[in-house]
Amino acid sequence: MKITKNAETVLKQRYLKKDENGNPVETVDGMFRRVASAIAEADRIHDRDADIRKTEDTFYNMMSELEFLPNSPTLMNAGRELGQLSACFVLPVEDSMDSIFEAIKQAALIHKSGGGTGFSFSRIRQEGSTVNSTGGVASGPISFMKVFNMATEAIKQGGSRRGANMGILRIDHPDILAFIDCKADNNVINNFNISVGLTEKFMEAVERGENYDLVDPHTKKAVKKLSARMVFNKIVDAAWRNGEPGIVFLDRLNRDNIVPGQGEIEATNPCGEQPLLPHESCNLGSVNLTRMVKVQDGKAVFDWDKLEKTVKNAVHFLDNVIEVNKYPLKEIEKTTKQTRKIGLGVMGWADALLMMKIPYNTDEAVELGERVMSFITEKGREASRELAETRGAFPLFKESTLPQDKPQRNGTITTIAPTGTLSIIGGCSSGVEPVFAYVFIRNIMDGTELFEVNPVLREELEKRGLYSEALMRRIAEEGAVSHIKELPEDIRRVFVSTHDISPEYHVRMQAAFQRATDNAVSKTVNFSNDATREDVAEVYTLAFSLGCKGVTIYRDGSRDEQVLNIGKVNRGEETPEQPRIVPRPRPDVVTGVTEKVKIGCGNLYITVNYDEKGICEIFTNTGKAGGCPSQSEATARLASVALRSGMDVKTIVDQLRGIRCPSTIRQQGMKCTSCPDAIARVIEQEYEKQVALGNWLPMPYEIKPTPEIKDKEGGAFCPDCGGSLEHESGCVICRNCGYSKCG
User: Taking 60 as the threshold, does the pLDDT of residue 195 lie above it?
Assistant: First the structure.
């Protein structure tokens, strides 16, 4: 098998079956066989005499050869008890408490099963409007987004993936200005990617410098006018600041809505590439284009015959997924099977270009991209029509906008997904993105270093006798090949990375694939840190003019999860210094109080000392009945050090409050649940007393979560393995271990 060591690690951590102790109980080969067998079984539904073994072998071969891979839930869950195989869902959110909390419940079930959810909050009435049923006022869509966010935080998808959401608000919603800024703080609503739903009418108003109407979603009446250009500039400013929000062009999503009689498309999946109707789901898969290249007359070219065969087998596979999928809700199963949408895309595009010695940022690459995707869509439709001959067209075909003389089994065929962890498994570049970094350095537990080198670059350098560890280290440190002038000019010209490519070519490549894709394209337009707001505005305007369905941008260094071009490893003297916080010395004179608190095993005496700068010291002492003196003393000492280091009081209180001790909760009438809980209560009580006296400022209303540890250049490490993080379509992905998080 062609699995790399890195891919094997990711599969063991996140995909393979495990026993109760978390140890893998299947091999990588066994996983592919499990998936192939489960998906092939769908053939029996349509043909009792179907050669299931032959179909299974076909599916197994194209997965094990890394020619095609389905979305992560299919790899994880096919042939297992959970059996939920789709990645993308959209749920409706109407303007009622019942609908809102039903959507939260449904989202929880989807996240638990391994899927991601998209929502439009555009139907929720604006903040401050009257609620007739209660006589109160509405809290608005953003407040409910925070509730959705908290629910997502509580669930880790299928034990392997973290919950992800897309939140969309129409540009004409009265709360649009607040929505644009609702993620100005990167730690707020951090389980959501957000996008503003733009209309053609709005973009025309921007172009003409006109005002446009904000419309009350409840009454459907205009309530206010805003300058379209002002709002557009505000979106640009927010995206320049930290990449949020993205934009989607709603009219274009609905232009390609194949069953408009079933409703309006208002939302997409978390990365924006899959527009769906309410309660609709879609399963995705990707062809690895590096496996579709052959050498002919001494030159690397696409093997169009192999690509056609792979595409047709992949369409067969994805249609079968719809049949054997165990949907999280009956309503989703019904809606999905009405249109039978699939989303076949690609990965390894940038690596395929490298193999053919075509620079990503050229007209030749853009034109080839459109040609490749047109071919995939055309052959995919042929395969879907062939399936329709034996299995029937999708149930809503006759009311669809598709040509009625060519029945299709599937309402849509193609989608370009980001393929974060799938591309790690496939050993190739992600989606249609350029290569982010050609060399990573991994630190192995025994202290040795392992260079993760782009396979196409390694082969080229070895062929020319240029490969060396010293050169790999330099590429890792400089973050690009094109900067190393000692390398031949043709290598520097071809092996371009993300930041060598102008934003214009990012958009042009996205538009080329979009023109040939049924659904949408997930792609990030990367900017250097010194890019201006005007640069962002130009990209949005270009994306609109070239026919894109949405845009996500990221300006380097604009978020906490700053991408690292990792050139240093965590070993000895080469480890980047982390910022160190030194506690201020204990004052010579302090003021304090001691309070007796009843706990489960007796009395706890808590002393809180402070000076003019705030609380600086906590002491505890237990009564004669005993208790846990060492643990309470340790808690008090750590709280003291944290307070003298400048940590916010509420952060400490929030961490200690509610910790439960069995000896306390067994007794009735206890005000405290444990020694730490008692310490927190006394700290909070004394702090609030000093605030009331006007001596100290109030606690902040909202405490930010602790961010990932950053190096001195502002980068962030993966919280699972310490590797570097890359930005992809509003998400971060670690190519070392497969960790990913959206929002």
Answer: yes
- Please indicate whether residue 269 is annotated as part of the active site: yes
Contacts of 507 (CB under 8 A, 6+ apart): 525, 539, 542, 543, 546, 548, 551
CB-neighbour burial class of residue 652 (10 A; exposed 0-12, middle 13-18, buried 19+): buried
Percent pLDDT > 90 in the chain is 65
Distance, C-alpha 257 to centroid of its chain: 25
Q: What would the two tokens of residue 486 be?
A: 């000692």
What string of DSSP letters covers 88-155? Answer: EEEE---SSHHHHHHHHHHHHHHHHTT-EEEEE-TTSPPTT-EETTTTEE---HHHHHHHHHHHHHT-
Residue with tokens 């919950």: 163
The string over 568-579, giving b where at least 16 C-beta atoms fall within 10 Å of a residue's C-beta and e elsewhere, is bbeeeeeeeeee
Pairing, β 192-198 against β 725-728 = unpaired
Options 269, 526, 565, 736, the catalytic residue? 269
pLDDT score of 548 more than 90: yes
Contact 644, 637 (CB under 8 A): no
Q: Any catalytic annotation for residue 734?
A: no
Q: Which of 88, 271, 672, 734 is catalytic?
A: 271
Distance CA 463, CA 357 (A): 14
Bond before 245 cis per omega within 30 degrees: yes
Q: What is the pLDDT of residues 613-640, one digit of tens each?
A: 788 889 888 765 556 777 788 888 888 9
- Give 253 or 20, the one with higher predicted confidence: 253
Please tell me whether residue 650 adopts helix, strand or coil conformation: helix
| Annotation marks residue 26 as catalytic | no
Q: 382 near 316, Cβ under 8 Å? A: no
Per-residue pLDDT, averaged over 370-388, amounts to: 98
Identified catalytic residue from 41, 56, 266, 273:
273
**Which H or E element spans position 421?**
helix 420-426
CA distance 212 to 225: 5
Q: Which has more pLDDT, 731 or 44?
A: 44
Token pair listed for 594: 């001691």
